[in-house]
Amino acid sequence: MSSAHITPVRTYVATFVALLILTAITYLVALRDFGVLNTPIALAVAFLKASLVVIFFMGLRHNTPLTKVTAIAGFFWLLILFGITLSDYATRGWLGVPGR
Amino acid sequence: MASGHEHVLPGTHAVAGHGASAHDDHAHHNPNLQHHFYSMEQQLEASTFGMWVFLVTEIMFFGGMFMVYILYRHLYPDAWMHGSNHLDVTLGALNTGVLICSSLTMVLAVRAAQVSSRKGQIVNLILTILFGATFLVVKYFEYAEKFHHNLVPGPHFNAPTAEFPAGIITDPTHDPLHQQLFFSIYFMLTGVHAAHMIVGIGIMLVILAMAIRGKFDASYYTPVEVSGLYWHFVDVVWIFLFPLLYLLGAHVSAAHGG
């Protein structure tokens, strides 16, 4: 009846261990000063961790194409939100005129 | 949704209603199958899709607050760096670990339902609830410490305390004025996240009660699956909050975190 892809427990445990190791790495890296690179490193690790949760724990890899597109679209719209807002704030002051 | 379903179209179903195959369908009809779905498989897919649509609205909801964070961090980098340094990185890391543990037990609860293990569901759901509660207790101690040190936005922000007679933020180059903005955003983001945790624990209590009554097995576990998606999503939000709020200023060494 069910079309469940029953994932072995060891896959979940491996994901869990990877998430804990990545948390330890990002914590240790954050204690050192890498200048402007601190935040990019921390965000790269966060994206990796979030991807592990979404792909393995949330099982997105076994979902239908429609659900996959929906999930990816959510993060894509988020980038549109950030992109358009920053394109406003980052470019204010480019024109040295009042009411710019 | 997905191709390859061997379901009968509504029109043809009426025609086949007198045939032997319709009787077989009826014999195998799961009582948990809602009338508007063709099969249990389609029902699970539709529910999962619906949950993801809801989660997309949640992404945008949290996204607006992350946008505020990005914007003001861009405008007041010093306030952000030194404000972050007042947060307890160890407790933040501990809570990250607690949430990862809760995500593991959550996914094991879903798996227990998939293999029709009632005991597995109950044990893992209780563990998930306990990990979630642990997170909130740690958060309580963090918030209490901020109140104790007058780091809560408002008229008493950075007011003198017995421990810090001149206020906890003494260095004017650390931009105390805009650190108040950092703490507003800290309380907003972590507060809304904690509210999601409380809702999640409430949902898990309902799922636990249903699991105890033996509602879920390999043929029907949709509520466990979609509640699990919500739980993992709240974990994903924290995965981004941890570096952006706690790790940001962790490398800044200051005498008393000023």
Estimate percent helicity of chain B: 55-70%
Number of strands of chain B: 0
Averaging pLDDT over every residue of chain A, what do you get?
Answer: 90
The CA-CA distance between the termini of chain A, in Å, is: 63 Å
* Class based on secondary structure composition and strand pairing of chain B: mainly alpha
Estimated radius of gyration of chain A: 20 Å
Question: How many strands, which pairing sense, and closed or not: the largest β-sheet of chain A?
Answer: none
Q: Describe the oligomeric state of these chains in a short phrase.
A: heterodimer
SSE ordering of chain B: HHHHHHHH
Relative strand content of chain B: under 5%
Q: Your description of this structure?
A:
The complex is a heterodimer of chains A (100) and B (258). Chain A has 100 residues and is mainly alpha-helical. Chain A folds into two domains: 1-62; 64-100. Helix content of chain A is 67%, strand content 0%. Chain B has a single domain, classed as Four Helix Bundle (Hemerythrin (Met), subunit A). Helices cover 69% and strands 0% of the residues of chain B. Chain B starts with 9 loop residues before the first helix and ends in an 11-residue tail after the last helix. Chains A and B meet through helix 1, helix 2 and helix 3 of A and helix 3, helix 5 and helix 8 of B.
Summary?
The complex is a heterodimer of chains A (100) and B (258). Chain A has 100 residues and is an all-alpha fold. Chain A is 67% helix and 0% strand.
Strand and helix map with partners:
The complex is a heterodimer of chains A (100) and B (258).
Chain A: H1 9-30, H2 38-57, H3 65-89
Chain B: H1 10-15, H2 20-27, H3 40-75, H4 77-84, H5 89-114, H6 118-148, H7 176-212, H8 222-247
Helix pairs in contact in B: 3-4, 3-7, 3-8, 4-7, 5-6, 5-8, 6-7, 7-8
Features:
heterodimer; A: mainly alpha; 3 helices; 0% strand; B: 258 residues; mainly alpha; 69% helix
